[in-house]
Amino acid sequence: MRATVIHAPHDIRIEEVPDAAVREPTDAVVRTVLACICGSDLWAYRGVASRQPGQRIGHEFLGVVEAVGAAVTGFRPGDLVVAPFVWSDGVCEFCVEGLQTSCPHGGFWGTPGSDGGQGEAVRVPFADGTLVQLPKEAASDQHLLTALLALSDVMSTGHHAALAAGVRPGATVAVVGDGAVGLCGVLAARRLGADRIIALGRHEDRTAIARKFGATDVVPARGEEAVAAVRELTGGSGAHAVLEAVGTEESMRTAISIARDGGAVGYVGVPHGGSAGVDISQMFDRNVAVCGGVAPARAYIPELLADVLSGRIDPSPVFDATVDLDGVPDGYRAMDERTALKVKITF
Amino acid sequence: MRATVIHAPHDIRIEEVPDAAVREPTDAVVRTVLACICGSDLWAYRGVASRQPGQRIGHEFLGVVEAVGAAVTGFRPGDLVVAPFVWSDGVCEFCVEGLQTSCPHGGFWGTPGSDGGQGEAVRVPFADGTLVQLPKEAASDQHLLTALLALSDVMSTGHHAALAAGVRPGATVAVVGDGAVGLCGVLAARRLGADRIIALGRHEDRTAIARKFGATDVVPARGEEAVAAVRELTGGSGAHAVLEAVGTEESMRTAISIARDGGAVGYVGVPHGGSAGVDISQMFDRNVAVCGGVAPARAYIPELLADVLSGRIDPSPVFDATVDLDGVPDGYRAMDERTALKVKITF
User: Fold this and answer.
1) Domains contained in chain B, number
2) pLDDT tens digits along B255-273
3) Residues B144, B7: one domain?
């Protein structure tokens, strides 16, 4: 089969790789229908996060079950399924609690020895614990399929940020970052009943989506200027809940600074700035909490899926470009150069 | 009147100062009955936290109301009262929400222009918003008074740490720090229904109090060794809730490392190590939250007071030495040299 392989920073290739196959009785093989490129894939693309040369890449996909191992009971060939961005066994104490990202048998698509999501098929370990069933009818509805693809990571991650930040009905929320996760964070905050949602972002095409998703205010500034703008919009107090969806030192510093005293930053941006953005003295004096981390998408997909199917939320606008498998290197380039927000891959 | 004054690191003096007096209609004057020395006073004593030469010091006291301003409605001369370690107006949005430490009219005892708690009397701004009434009968019960004095800071702060860390019935809790706040954190965790409480501390007289307060396990190690010990005690998982009551880089690092995935560190140790102890990458991968800060003691005193009066909790064992006002410099020395845990001041 063919799949996306990363050889070095900026060196993404589509190559022939061994066919995905059932190896363990708990495995399934999923033939990919849709996949996409993540903002966090760019950390590898840019060489900020290291990868072994020749490693697979991609962690968001949905598709059709092609084969299952003897121990798989919840799925059978022909099922339409979406995968969260990590696999998990579904039975350990963490999985039972809904923190599947801490499953001791879990793993991240594309790590050495596993298939990545940006390929024609994927061997899915612990299929029963990992995959979520989608209605078969969705297969013929490209718009709906696109919305469902967002559950794999960005919509679930935005939801995690909103939960971690403690978004409640009536809350004032600020969202740092206008990437796909930040935008989904806006949508999640609205879904959780936020009254006012301030989106921080400077790309007008993106903030337009933020407004469509429920942002009531847009702050195009950065750093100190952004802090001042959010303070002014909130009568000096700051936001009850701040979603940090970037992962840099500056964004974390901004997020903490615009939180209202007693509030929380829900951070989901993969941290690449050490801890320097975390100003513990400022947090201490104002009782600002820093919560969040890697989103247990598997825990959230069922409830978010219901809302996508009912039409209550539609995250599909975060995908603004589409490529086929051969176009994936171009897709990375477009996202790296910010000419695309999030690139969908069709098979 | 006479009060404690700090002139320079290690230079604490008892001096004649202007009498405390009602200046604003919302003021009260409280004649001090009991006060004490806080672990956080040692930061000033050691020169780690700067003070203006000649500044007053001390932020924990209870006493008898001597005079009230015309606008004070909740107190009158003769009332026995305890003060939280910050004053607050009681009417702003933060006070109403129970985050009195963020009151825009609030302040910390001993800041320039205000009286400190380690003096014969204290001018209390916003008496109605700040003070809490105690039963008059307590005045004749030295043991009870001592327990009530702990509400001013250490017991309320330990409770804040436990709340911030999300202590729930049945939880496994770890407490980093065997100072008075850490010990009160043990007591607060037990009060909130923790099932297992692991106290980290190496001073046997202190860990004996921890056991009396409800600690089920004691870990005398530090750093990596402590992390390994807590992991072993918890089947490898760590503690659901970790109370960080030290405020150094090492203690924060330890606290994060011993938290169970998905758990939280409730930190109340005044931070003096920058943000270096906050390992955001470790927090991210394991969804460990860092919550807490300066405790809104005023919010907690009423409920904790009820439990002290009923005998359900007794934090008095954290006081292991007593001095009179003239003995305060010796009290600082004893705490600095760790020959005393927490020094009570009688008047």
Assistant:
1) 2
2) 999 999 999 999 998 777 5
3) yes
